[in-house]
Design brief:
single chain; mainly alpha; Multidrug-efflux Transporter Regulator, Chain: A, Domain 2; 2 domains; two-stranded antiparallel ribbon; 2 strands; elongated
Length: 152
């Protein structure tokens, strides 16, 4: 089947399929005399595995490791189990951070509800946030992918 047909059957774009080929997740298919790719039916199953791996939280690189091990005839169960355990620990840590953030935001919202709006007249500051900053250390921190911008 040609690349457009494979894309249509899998819901992926032809660009994604070419990218998967480029990074080694998909084997380069046979080519017709006119240069068109000719994918076998096994390509659909491989793409389904890649999609399912991503849905489980694995990166494309990790999926490539598993596919490489399978191609070499190696057992992948222990390796996959370790990858999933690591991703599960990451998710648990994210949940803990989100729960702490939710608790702090709720407390700040409750403080804001008790403040007198007439005293909020300085456009350069926010009493709700400054009240928290003056208090104990806050669990609110930028997420690992965020960064604080310098004050100008």
């Amino acid at each position: 089947m040609r690349i457009g047909e494979l894309a249509q059957q899998t819901g992926l774009t032809t660009k994604t399929l070419r990218y998967y080929e480029q990074i080694g997740l998909m084997q380069e298919p046979d080519r017709h005399a006119n240069g068109y790719r000719d994918y076998g039916d096994d390509a659909i199953e491989r793409l389904r595995f890649i999609r399912d791996s991503q849905a489980a939280g694995l990166t494309l690189a990790e999926t490539g490791e598993i596919l490489g091990m399978k191609a070499a005839g190696e057992s992948t169960c222990a390796h996959t189990r370790d990858l999933l355990a690591r991703h599960l620990a990451d998710v648990d840590a994210q949940i803990d951070r989100l729960l702490a953030t939710r608790t702090e935001l709720r407390a700040m919202a409750e403080r804001a509800a008790t403040m007198n709006p007439e005293s909020c007249n300085d456009p350069a500051r926010c009493q709700v946030i400054e009240a928290k900053a003056a208090g104990e250390g806050s669990p609110l921190r930028p997420a690992p992918h965020q960064r604080l911008l310098p004050l100008a």
